[in-house]
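Protein of interest.
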Amino acid sequence: MLFDVKRVRDDFPNLQARGRDEKPIVYFDNAATTFKPCQVSSSTQDHYCHRTANIHRGVHYLSEQATADYEATREKARRFLNARSLSEIVFTKGATESINLVAACWGRTFLKSGDEVLLSEMEHHSNIVPWQLIREATGCVIKVVPINDQGEIILEEYKGLLSSRTKIVSMVHVSNSLGTVNPVSDMIKLAHTAGALFLLDAAQGVSHEPVDVQALDVDFLVFSGHKLFGPTGVGVLYGKESILETMPPYQGGGDMILSVTFDKTIFNRLPLKFEAGTPNIAGIIGMGAAIDYVRGLGWADMIAYKKELLDYGIRALTAVEGLRMIGTARNKAPIFSFVLENIHAHDIGTLIDREGVAIRTGHHCTQPVMKHFGIPATSRASLAFYNTKEEIDIFVRALGNVIKIFH
């Protein structure tokens, strides 16, 4: 069965939105956040309109219903990632908080002076700064794996930096600024051979291809709901149960305890130990609807269609005069970062916005990537499965108009 993009687009009302001067919007900013299908908004609206209540400890009907809906998402996330146990699925505010949780709870407990944390040159700031904070607290050392000029991790350098001092590797699955899809299965095996844990930042990866945490044997994995066509402000931390059991809580408060006295607190079982306070209940339920939606599309057809968009976009953009692509990895997602000769990225973004084309400009929270390529910023067009080749054509024509204005 071929991927039916026209049918899929009907599920996303935002795709019918109008921009400046009532022009149809071409939304190519999916790496920042994705549009949400009607099924997601309907699920959150149903909670707020018909099933609002706090979860877990209520004995009344609405609380029981809200709890059931909330915990159903945990099972959906478990199946989505193929985790062994519900105890391994922790709800957070997103990938950023998930990384901070691991850095704070595992890092402060197990890292000491001289231990090494291995990152890559293509990491998002949210996978750099938390480890720097832990470095200040523990005296650990951060080592950085370089990338080549195609935007790929140099595996020989990665192997060379792994040692008995490496305690954890924390790296991205799919680069948000380059589109690079990293060979994470091999990288995880190499880390484990060196005796290190591996945290996978799958914020972009979970919408690109199926992820099986057991097959990968990854120790931690993080993602955000809003980059998986779900609500903002929610996300998942997957962690092996045996590791999560050894970590202290991230925050204190309600629901993460079994009993409290002024002398002692006994913490709750996994995963509730890491979920203090009233969560974003409607958002979690909406994330469950988003997981259902993505699973229902069929990975094989979706991946094949996005590969068509990738190949078409590369051909169209490389034909643009004066355009230099930043990120030309052999294995990449449909994320196109580029610079235009003598035209600032912000000018490009502003001018094509007048044509109804929405892209992202700047450093994309990956300033080390910009430093590697010797540029202050790029323009980035990031596509999802609901985008089309016709939209790519509109985008390229808008770029042509920008070039005419400047030259």
User: Anything to note?
Assistant: The domain at 5-30+298-406 is CATH 3.90.1150.10 (Aspartate Aminotransferase, domain 1). The chain has a mean pLDDT of 96. The first strand starts at residue 26 and ends at 27.
